[in-house]
Amino acid sequence: MVTGYWGVAELPLHDGHVPRWMAERMKRLLRAIVAFIVEDRGPGWLVERLADPLWFQALNNVIGMDWDSSGSTTVLTGLLRQVTETGEFGLMVAGGKGRRALETPSDLEVIGEKLGLSSSRVEYLKRVSRLAAAADSSLLQDGFQLYHHTVIVAEDGSWTIVQQGMSLEERVARRYHVSHRVVHEGVETLEPHTGVVSRLRRSAVLDLTSRASLEARRVIVDVAREKPERVLRLLREAIAVARGVVPLTSFSGGKRPSQTVIRYYRPLKPPDPRRIEPVLRRVYELQPDTIEALVSIRGVGPATIRALALIAELVYGSEASHEDPAVTDPLRYAFAVGGKDGYPYPFDAKTAEEAAAVLEEAVAKARIGDREKLEAIRKLRRLLRPPV
């Protein structure tokens, strides 16, 4: 457990930016921390730790970013990308914020060359990148629109994906972590997240990544493989049920939808059958046999998946999970050099530079065989105790 101040990862959308003088000191400190960890534990260990939302947030706070800002994700991953761009530390970062996220596939090709990854590994990384984006936009529909996507890759092929979505209505963000430790190659992804962090926890979402949605996923794929005309007819019937226009007695053996199902679907704008018809025809032609294959088809997005889930739940009685996977429990964060916005105290440039210098010296000596200072720094953690 990381020691420090108590806080909750609220991630409100903040305007503004990090001043250049501060960003340069943050970058130096982060570089020193990365170098120390890689020298001590290796790049794969660091990539795995970044899949832990608490550890990620603590690292963000240690270099001087805010404890509660959406920028904590974009700034940390952006600086990490700069620090590791040469590949010297055995890990690199693909993607980023906004349009930068669209360059993830080409970034991964460059990373593959610099880190010596096989072409098949690079193609696999491209695939999990696409699936992670689809998972948190289509399979998990929680009201947050993705605007940030990064893939952090180590030279041993291990990876972590960190992405973030925003809710403009509530002016708050939500961060998603996915790790190679829970996503197995060649296997359908169930519960891929190592953490979803948000201040808001919805009363009802559509979560097809949950194990509780396994049967619903199977029904969704089966329905998607049927002729578009039948799917559209079932969709119109399901929409009528969701609106309360007709009773459910003619479907699902008379089973009534739970209040959670109605709470999720009723406020939503129903999927427009005319808009998704071309997509359904494309799906019918390709006949996907898994949910992953389905969301990989061009044009299949949140509306199509929501339409199929609505049919699965209200017509066939295969209810998906509507429990929000986000964690809002209090977490402990570590502050070492203050925060950009003055919390818990203003950014201390002198301390940041001194800390970076100590770590840099320890790494430089370790690289020539003198690990005494590195080991001494490692032992400091024994002095740390949780706050009373």
Automatic annotation (TrEMBL):
UniProt cross-references to Pfam families, sorted A to Z: DUF763 (PF05559)
InterPro entries linked: DUF763 (IPR008482)
Protein name: DUF763 domain-containing protein
Organism: Pyrolobus fumarii (strain DSM 11204 / 1A)
